[in-house]
Give the backbone structure.
Amino acid sequence: MNALTLAGMAVVLCMLAVTVRQVRPEFSVGLLILGGCAIAGVCIASLEPTVRALNDLSSQYAVSEGFGLVLKALGICFVTQMAADTCRDAACASLASKIETAGRIAVLAVIFPLFASLLETAIGIMNG
Amino acid sequence: MMKKVIITTILAAIIMLAAPIAEASVYDGYDELYEESGAAELTDFLPEETAEKLADAGIGSASEEYMANIDVSAILDSVMEITAEESRQPLKVGVTVIAAILLTALVGGLKDSLADTRAAQAAYVAVAVFAAVSALTPLLSYFDDVIKTIEGANTFERGFIPVFAAVLAASGQTVTASGSAAAILTVSEISSAVLCGTVVPFVRIITAVSGVSAAAPDMSLDTVVAFAEKCVRWILGILATVVVASLTISGMVTAATDTVAGKAVRFVVSGTVPIIGGAVGEALASVKSCVALLKTSVGAFGIIACGYIFLPVIIRGVLWRLTLEMCSCVAELFSAGAVAKLLKALSSAVGMLISVCILMVIMLTVSAAAILTAGKAG
């Protein structure tokens, strides 16, 4: 899917949300959430070839498994950000902030093996 | 009168007949001296890989036969082979780090929606940590290889110096022999002790701190790395100055002593041996030239071997530095500041190790060359 279609989708969604908000404001939020999920899904799907190419490159050069962890961390970032933005759209800023914190913790948990590996290597270098 | 003519004719005949015999005996003497001095076993003191690489380059031993026929193209081929062999690991790390930088760019490309959030900051740290782990793990083996190489060179020097000293002593330069042996051994021991015990651990600490700082992007490493570089430069500079100066002075003094001793021997022989004293003095000179040939070939072999011991780690270091600098440029291009800083710090650490290796090569080469040059005075 190209960017033009995506932009068209976003404009139509926005017009729909504005129209619905005047009649039934509670449906407007649901509409925005659904639309946002659809657009994010399309974005993530369009990233797939890039991610696959990076994965191929990493397996071709026998890059460490850390690469997968970094990809996972980035994925968490996207999902967290999407959820936080949706919460902000629904005027739930504090919830958005909490989701971001949760995302950060999740990213740290995912990359913890990398930290451990880094520390181990650093200690190995210092010990000789 | 007739008697004098007969004696002169007989002496002339003896000298003419003796000339080719003397020449043959010079070459016999060379082989004998080559075997007895232990020069034939010099390759045994080399690290196995270095001996193989030298053999590939057509320098199988310290013999004049090999040293007089050094093939530059074979050496270049072997250097190219070493370069190809050593480039694998840096290339692999380069690809990994660039992949990590591309991921950072992916995050950076979504600046408005993602880049300023707390989750994205964690992702940046993840990418920087990944780049650090990818570059540091192979660097760990590079550090070990540098130390092994310095120790290998030290082992070779311990085998090479007694042989070189024996050859120098055989050429009548007994003072130079003992002085140079002691000087080079001291140089080798002190250099490897200072470099392996002080400089390399210092560089190790800098590298480890640089790596760990990837987890703290706000940490500024520039001043720390600059300070470390300055310290290492000072240590290497002082070491080089002290070593080269002491070697040169020691070489000059001992060679001057040997020159006086050599001239005295020639004068005594020429003066005391009746009639053929002058001829014996000349024969002494021809034996000396044979020994000088051996001395030159052994010295040249020592210099080339030292170069070959360090060549792989120097080439690998240069390739590492190129890769890290290139990745740092790419990181700056994609605004991955933390990764760029980290890579620059690692590149500086590798640069310090290259300096250590080059200094060792220069010191060992200069020490051998200083003694060879000093020996020519006699």
User: Anything to note?
Assistant: Chain B touches chain A at residues 91-92, 95-96, 99-100, 102-103, 106-107, 113-114, 117-123, 125-127, 129-130, 132-134, 136-137, 139-140, 143-144, 147, 200-201, 204-205, 207-209, 211-212, 214-215 (CB under 8 Å). Residues 108 and 157 of chain B are 54 Å apart (CA to CA). The first helix of chain B runs from residue 2 to 36.
